Amino acid sequence: MPDLSSLELLLAVARLGSLGRAAREAGISQPAASARMHTLERLAGFPLLERTPRGSVLTPAGVLVTDWARPLLEAADELDAGLTALREDHDSRLRVEASLTVAEYLLPRWLVTLRDARPGVSVSLRVANSTDVAARLLAGEADLGFTEGSRAPRGLDSAVVARDRLTVVVAPGHPWSRRRSPLTAAELAAAPLVQREQGSGTREVLSAALAAHGGPAAPLLELASTTALKAAAVSGAGPAVLSSLAVADDLASGRLVAVEVADLTLDRALRAVWPHGTQPTGPARELLTLTRATARRTKP
């Protein structure tokens, strides 16, 4: 695999039309940039650039590689922002608490946007279930939180920043994967499920949705992370109910199968939360503003 700096240089050449200008933007010499491109082409096994007296032009293969590289570099940027926020920093000016779904699938992109707008802001991130997020906010140990329950925890004000839907999933070999008719809510309530721990927003939403049927049965397994739940479901341990954000890739690849439930609503709102009667200030206010803007753009 090529290193990310070489891919960034290739994208700069595509944008600027010159290896020399791309080298200056990257802060390296032109011979060093040329060496990087030769190494990248050697790894790829085919030419990526056509050098001309007027500049550098991507070959058709080079155009394809840049199309593949662009989302990879964006993901790397999100990873860097997330890792930076997770590092313990006692001088942080923004302390964020987030539930697993928000932390894994939404917050990294928001942090990249915040960093671009305010590069001097230092962020620390702690990942916890929705109950713990609320407790730390109320204790004054965080500036802004994100939860995924059906409503804001008691004592907190909130703003909806995204919409999500829980999906019932099973391994391809599970009997439910071959059903021709939708599952009923009563059947789902009676079935032992692989579930999140008490206090998680996912568990709370599922329990509320199945309350008319006595709530979910005793868990087959109780696990504290989305990744663990997916792994258990993929292995065939049993059905699981997970965020549609978390299982999208697994459904597309066939590792998991979605099971339709006929008479049950599993939609939920993902919320930014802060102590009741206050207003977020400084970087917390800026992060809240950009998450609200994202919610408006993605509203159906």
Automatic annotation (TrEMBL):
**Domain of life, per lineage:** Bacteria
- Pfam families named in the record: HTH_1, LysR_substrate
Q: Which Gene3D superfamilies match?
A: Periplasmic binding protein-like II, Winged helix-like DNA-binding domain superfamily/Winged helix DNA-binding domain
Answer whether the UniProt record assigns the keyword NAD to this protein.
Answer: no
The HTH lysR-type domain extends over 2-59
Query: Which family is it part of?
Result: Belongs to the LysR transcriptional regulatory family.
Q: Which GO terms describe its molecular function?
A: DNA-binding transcription factor activity; transcription cis-regulatory region binding
Q: Which UniProt keywords apply?
A: DNA-binding, Transcription, Transcription regulation
User: This chain belongs to which protein, by name?
Assistant: LysR family transcriptional regulator
